[in-house]
Amino acid sequence: MTALWIAHVTVTDADAYAKYAQAAGPAIAAHGGVFLARGGRFQQMEGNERPRNVVARFPSFNAAVACYNSSAYQAALAHAKGASERDLVIVEETPPPAK
């Protein structure tokens, strides 16, 4: 089953976070990740609002976890630490209903 990274982010240092975004994209792609949403328009319906929301799909849960733990992504993440407040969850997608 595919899996999703769902991140909710408040950027506190735009220059440092831009370095994260530049390095994170290739690390995510190297693990089969594809962005479905990346900072687009949103409407907060419940919970705590964060102005940047990102969703990426990976070919499997294991690929999503491996990406996060990879040296390339961790190097990118070093730029985001101290430059943002983030919540990130990896969720396995539900299979489509049988027809």
What's the arrangement of secondary structure elements?
Layout: E1 3-11, H1 14-30, E2 34-38, E3 52-58, H2 61-69, H3 71-80, E4 84-92
Antiparallel strand pairs: 1-3, 1-4, 2-3
Task: Give a written overview of the molecule.
Helix content is 36%, strand content 30%. It has 99 residues and is an alpha+beta fold. The protein has a single domain, classed as Alpha-Beta Plaits (2-Layer Sandwich). A 4-stranded antiparallel beta sheet has the order 2-3-1-4. α1 (14-30) runs antiparallel to α3 (71-80). The protein starts with a strand and ends in a 7-residue tail after the last strand. Residues 2-93 form the DUF1330 domain. This is DUF1330 domain-containing protein. It comes from Paracoccus sediminis. InterPro entries: Dimeric_a/b-barrel, DUF1330.
Total of DSSP H or I helical runs spanning 4+ residues = 3
- CATH topology term: Alpha-Beta Plaits
Sheet having the most strands = 4 strands, antiparallel
How much of the residues is beta strand, in percent?
25-35%
Name the overall outline. Answer: globular
